[in-house]
Amino acid sequence: MIVELTSGVLATLHEDARRAAPEECCGLLLGRGQRIDEARAAANLAENRHVHFEIDPVVLLAAHKEVRAGGPEVIGYYHSHPTGICVPSATDRQHSTGDSRIWAIIAESEVAFWRDNANGFEALPFRVVE
Fold first, then answer.
1. Exposed end of the chain (fewer CB within 10 Å): N or C?
2. How far apart are the C-alpha atoms of 83 and 50, rounded to whole Å?
């Protein structure tokens, strides 16, 4: 399974991570199937935003409302590791729900995609499409 995303989505992920540093950024991945058409930023409401993220539930609920109205699906989430690598951290693994959603993790100048499944996180290849 290959995740597809536009160059605009990739640029948004990098920009959001850069803007939030040294804190973690976070947001939603919207699209259909395995194609990400939008990265929607959300406020990070975590108490310690340098090492944790908590997506603003208002943004998440609004996105789910849009889905019911025929909008894009919430196919995953993203966040950054400002001082780490783009691999799920111990904290990420603790918060894994096994819901099969896609997680994008941004670190330095890299982005990696992961499937949150019942056995933890599985690395996913990706390609940029237009």
1. C
2. 9
**Residue showing tokens 């499937």:** 115
Domain 3-128 has CATH 3.40.50.920: no
Burial of 38 (0-12, 13-18, 19+ CB in 10 A): middle
Task: State how far the Cα of 111 lies from the Cα of 46, in Å rounded to an integer.
Answer: 22
Contacts of 11 (CB under 8 A, 6+ apart): none
Return mean pLDDT, the chain: 95
Longest distance between any two alpha carbons in the chain, whole Å: 39
Provide the whole-model pTM: 0.95
CA torsion, ordered 75, 108, 10, 68, to nearest 10 deg: 20
